[in-house]
């Protein structure tokens, strides 16, 4: 296996990860699916909450994605990967943040999840930094976005860490199959195929929506 880290983007290659994408697995292992089932376009978004390029992607495209979801033209399956744990101060921040997202996704509506998702990127720890968010910090952050006391407790307890880890592995495998063995965050799939130009503004999304319009 070949693994490289370049500017917060992680690339892995494994021959066993090649093959066709399983749509059912992509659906089952999303941290949350947002948007109407009748939306003409569905995309899969793969991110890691420790990935600075993912933060940049969210700053550029997040608002446009939300608008497209709200106007009924887009359905998004969010996949939270966890392979930047070793770049965090705690050694497990990516996994803990993914578990927190699972808690919020399971316990709250899409508006709260979207706010929490954005807030985690806004408060993103520095790669190789001296500190990151504790579970209690993320629980308070979830509460500030409107999460219930039950959901906050789920985050504080790390109740969905195992679920988040399993989902990350399954999603990573599907992403590798879609790309012929390469995995990177952020990545967007449409129809099981990688979308080009996602770091060059929002033209990629405009084009997808126009094609499905």
Automatic annotation (TrEMBL):
A GO MF label: oxidoreductase activity
Sequence ranges assigned to domain Thioredoxin-like fold in this UniProt record: 31-199
Pfam families: Thioredoxin_4 (PF13462)
Keywords: Disulfide bond, Oxidoreductase, Redox-active center, Signal
PANTHER family: DISULFIDE BOND FORMATION PROTEIN D, GLUTATHIONE S-TRANSFERASE KAPPA
Family the entry assigns: Belongs to the thioredoxin family. DsbA subfamily.
UniProt-recorded name of the protein: Thioredoxin domain-containing protein
Native species: Gordonia mangrovi
């Amino acid at each position: 296996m070949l693994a490289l880290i370049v500017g917060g983007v992680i690339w892995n290659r494994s021959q066993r990860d090649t093959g066709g994408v399983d749509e059912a697995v992509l659906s089952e292992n999303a941290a949350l699916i947002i948007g109407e089932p009748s939306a003409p376009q569905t995309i899969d978004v793969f991110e890691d909450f420790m990935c600075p390029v993912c933060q940049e992607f969210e700053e550029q495209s997040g608002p446009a994605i939300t608008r497209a979801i709200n106007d009924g033209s887009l359905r998004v399956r969010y996949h939270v990967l966890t392979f930047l744990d070793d770049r965090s101060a705690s050694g497990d921040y990516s996994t803990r943040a993914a578990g927190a997202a699972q808690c919020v996704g399971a316990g709250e509506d899409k508006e709260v999840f979207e706010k929490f998702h954005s807030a985690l990127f806004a408060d993103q720890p520095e790669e190789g930094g001296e500190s990151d968010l504790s579970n209690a910090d993320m629980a308070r952050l979830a509460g500030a976005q409107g999460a219930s006391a039950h959901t906050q407790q789920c985050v504080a307890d790390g109740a969905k860490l195992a679920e988040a880890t399993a989902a990350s592995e399954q999603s990573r495998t599907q992403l590798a199959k879609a790309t012929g063995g390469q995995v990177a965050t952020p990545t967007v799939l449409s129809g099981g195929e990688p979308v080009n130009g996602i770091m060059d503004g929002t033209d990629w999304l405009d084009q997808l929506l126009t094609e499905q319009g």
